[in-house]
Amino acid sequence: PQPKRTQDQDKDHHSLPSSVMIFPVAIAALALSAAAAPASTMSARTRGAAAPTLRNRLQKFAPSQLRETRGQRPVSMKAEDFSGARKDLEKKFVEKRAEFLEETQDDRAAANPIGTVGGTAPMGKFWDPAGFTREADPNQVRRYRESEVTHGRLAMLGTLGFLTQENFAPLFGGHIEGPAINHFQEIQSIAPNFWYPVFLAITIAELGRARYGWEEPTKSLFGLRPEYEPGNLAFDPLNLAPKDEARLESMKNKELNNGRLAMLALAGMIAQELVTQKPLLA
User: Fold this and answer.
1) C-alpha span between 211 and 233 (Å, rounded)
2) 183-190 vs 195-213: helix axis angle to the nearest 10?
3) Nearest CA to 165 among 147, 186, 144?
4) How many C-beta neighbours within 10 Å does residue 259 have?
5) Biggest alpha carbon distance in the chain?
6) What is the CB neighbour count within 10 angstroms for residue 122?
7) Contact 251, 242 (CB under 8 A)
């Protein structure tokens, strides 16, 4: 059996010397002071090296009421200085943006199968804001140009036809009058067989164009021949095409621009006559 412990012995067993309890607290205090020492002992020179960098950056963009965090005098900028700096930044931004857009157009024009023909000022060398050509394959882009050239040529003839036939119509005894949008029906009522040879001539011309520039349907459906230039049917009976490449490209640009203008003009003419039911110059 264990000997019975006295009350004094139990008291001594449960109580520890004060030196043993203070020792862990001292160790923790020393550790905290060592961790805080680098921040507190950082030299004034080191602290001052980082502050001016942030201060100098803020001075370029801060308002006049910006103050330093060290209690020194306020940093201020005159309103005219700030306005001038902002104008300089805006000017540089516009220049860089124009340079970026020009590079983008050059890159797209270089990679474009139709080249820079049709790209003129002020729209740039390659103008496609709707992005029709971004996901299109080369054959589809060339078909776009074929359609543009063809419809532009038809629109130029159409605008001249509207203005001419409404003011000078010697055919059919001079009985064709009124707005040009109704002339087809008037001619059909006077000469019902007139349009058949016209449609036959159009069919022959379109078949010839298709056989010249388009691949065989068994080889490629709606595919243009690789050597075919969209719109170039080698039809120049008056020999008006220049031999110089620069002049030839200039003439192609003029044809495209006038065709684009004519498509817009013809659409406006048709809309006007549909609304007013009167000739253009009435």
Assistant:
1) 11
2) 120
3) 186
4) 20
5) 149
6) 5
7) yes
Residue in the block written with tokens 């080369």? 138
Contacts of 174 (CB under 8 A, 6+ apart): none
Residue whose C-alpha is closest to residue 163's, from 282, 280, 260: 280
Question: For tokens 């308002």, what's the residue?
Answer: 63
With tokens 């230039």, the residue in question is 229
Give the pLDDT of the chain (282 residues) as one tens digit per residue. Answer: 445 555 444 444 444 444 445 545 555 555 545 444 444 444 444 444 444 444 454 444 444 444 444 444 544 555 556 677 777 777 777 776 666 555 566 666 666 777 778 888 888 777 888 888 888 888 999 999 999 999 999 999 999 999 999 998 888 888 888 999 999 999 999 999 999 999 999 999 999 999 999 999 888 888 999 999 999 998 899 998 999 999 999 999 999 999 999 999 999 999 999 999 999 998
Q: Are 149 and 256 in contact (CB under 8 A)?
A: yes
DSSP, collapsed to helix, strand or coil, labels residue 212 as: helix
Confirm if 118 and 256 have CB atoms less than 8 A apart: yes
**Type of residue at 147:** S
List, in order, residues 6 or more apart from 243 with CB less than 8 Å away: none
